[in-house]
Amino acid sequence: MTRPITAGVDGTEESLAALAWAAREAVRRDRPLRVVHAWRFQSHEGVAAADRDTQDGWVRGATAEAVRTVTERHPELTVSVDVVEGHAVESLVAAAADAELLVLGSRGHGAVVGFLLGSVGQQVIAAAARPVVLVRAGDRATTEASGRDVVVGQQGGPQDSAAALRFAFETAAARRATLRAVRAWTLPPVFAYSPGSMKLLDDAGGLEPYEKKALTEALAPWRERFPAVPVTEHIEMGSAGQVLLSLADRAQLMVVGRRAHHTAVGARIGSVAHGVLHHAPCPVAVVPHA
């Protein structure tokens, strides 16, 4: 089965930008586009024609109009539409399960809004089994053709960021873009030193050469699989979130991995993904660890 690129829409400017982004990505990857509108009936006293069937008609009409714009722009694209009455989180997580990736809209440099109210966006990202891309309302196709890099964060060993690296290489290959792989590092606390770790650092020639070697090793299998993708290795001292955000203005897409943490007050997606989602001006892809 060919997984579609799935876009969640709700009629807002940011969700229409997400739909446009998803359509372009579906064309690049030669995949079908699926459009999902999750809504819930709400009673409005004193508002004429506000019954369930009428609201359903409004939703379907707005969705059809948005899809019409996409099909006129990309007549070769295969598009399916699902208007679902139900809870936004459950509907979107279910849609993501069958998708190559799920694309949602977000507004400004704050929390995700629209049908994603409060913690809903975070819940979708934390629960989705597939990559989720967040697109700002002002996103334009010209950004993708501007020569900007696809930027991906790499942490830990080769397997720790394998899913994010794969997604980033696939995206860069589809866009014929340069991939900038970023590894941030900080000085470890004194108590973290051990004879074993000191030997590894000595063998590598110091902390920064050690981090560069780790990044090179993590990239090696993906460079072999995608030899046509130009790669820039970026090693910088600082927190991962700060380093990635310093590059966001020059990125056409930012890719970060996530390992969801479930707590008594809800799901948490990690400080790096959280910071980038809230502050990066470019689209952000959050990829669950394998």
Automatic annotation (TrEMBL):
Residues 1-136, 150-288 form the UspA domain. It holds the Pfam family Usp. InterPro entries: Rossmann-like_a/b/a_fold, Universal_stress_UspA, UspA. It comes from the Bacteria. Signal peptide: none annotated. Belongs to the universal stress protein A family. This is Universal stress protein.
